[in-house]
Design goal:
By secondary structure, this protein is α/β, with parallel strands linked by helices. It folds into two domains: about 160 residues, FAD/NAD(P)-binding domain, CATH 3.50.50; about 70 residues, 3-Layer(bba) Sandwich (FAD/NAD(P)-binding domain), CATH 3.50.50.60. Helix content is about 35%, strand content about 20%. It is built from seven helices and 14 strands. The strands form five sheets. It has a four-stranded parallel beta sheet with strand order 3-2-1-7. A three-stranded antiparallel beta sheet has the order 4-5-6, with no helix packed on it. A three-stranded antiparallel beta sheet has the order 12-13-14, with helices on both faces. The radius of gyration is 24 Å and the shape is globular. The N and C termini lie far apart (about 50 Å).
């Protein structure tokens, strides 16, 4: 079971579905993919809530086609060793993967400043701590509202922009100039669902399917450092795609004999003497 229908939960559900249906069946012939059950639980009315609704619906349809069961409007109230509770209803499972976000660092609670429900500091428009213009809070510890009064997403591009803007404001303060508000520029979001399938929101352009997946590949290769790294990744991904060889090597049961192959025999001889 996967809790959280954001980009992390959707990508994780798609990856597990591919592993169970294509990878495991190649390497472990005793495994029946039909016995695999993958549940994706989302507390809201749709997956990928920050995406346009049409992309959300396409992502859900793609996951269901891959065998993932999607439960919407289902808020998890308790997780224990026996499974997951949605309200008073229990779903028994031995494996729970949490993709619904985490609380912010406890450091925010020591700042005596207003916090949001996840413990992030509600910063001023210039990223400063309320009441302390000399202190800046950025990244996963800060909640910054954009021009639509919505929180800036807690993703790496947002943290990079905030860091650069905080540095500029510090330099302005050193020069006796007033600070400037931080305006987040959304470069778009992408989420892969499976092989040759993804969804992407790039400004006003919405993409899905193969073209979104190719866009995801190009973006990730573009941000790699160095031509050699980019070429290596392109070759590896091309080989994996066209050869369709995805492997999983797992060791099930005790590994003591594998780590110390001679110990069992020596111990049995010692016991005989």
């Amino acid at each position: 079971m996967i809790v959280g229908g954001g980009p992390t939960g959707v990508e994780l559900a798609g990856a597990l579905a591919e592993i169970s249906q294509h990878v495991m069946v190649q390497d472990f012939r005793a495994i029946d993919p039909r016995a695999t059950q993958i549940l994706l639980v989302e507390g809201g009315p749709c997956l990928l809530p920050e995406y346009p609704r049409d992309l959300s619906d396409k992502a859900e349809a793609a996951l269901e086609k891959m065998g993932v069961e999607v439960l919407k409007n289902s808020r998890v109230s308790l997780v224990n060793q026996d499974g997951v509770f949605i309200g008073d209803h229990q779903i028994k499972t031995e494996t729970v993967l949490w993709a619904a976000g985490v609380r912010a660092s406890p450091l925010g609670q020591s700042l005596a400043s207003p916090l949001d429900r996840t413990g992030r500091v509600l910063v001023e428009p210039d990223l400063s701590l309320p009441g302390h213009p000399e202190v800046y809070v950025i990244g996963d510890l800060a909640t910054l509202l954009d021009h639509t009064a919505r929180p800036v997403p807690g993703v790496a591009p947002a943290a990079v922009q905030e860091g650069r803007h905080a540095a500029k404001n510090i330099l302005r303060a050193c020069g006796g100039k007033p600070s400037e508000p931080c305006r987040y520029f959304d470069k778009g979001t992408l989420a892969t669902i499976g092989r040759a399938n993804a969804v992407a929101r790039l400004g006003r352009v919405n993409l899905s399917g193969l073209i979104a997946w190719v866009t995801w590949l190009v973006v990730h290769i573009f941000f790699l450092i160095g031509f050699r790294n980019r070429l290596s990744v392109i070759v590896d991904w091309a080989w994996a795609y066209f050869a369709d060889r995805r492997e999983a090597r797992l060791v099930i049961g005790s590994i003591d004999g594998y780590l110390h192959p001679g110990r069992e025999k020596s111990e049995s001889r010692a016991a005989g003497h």
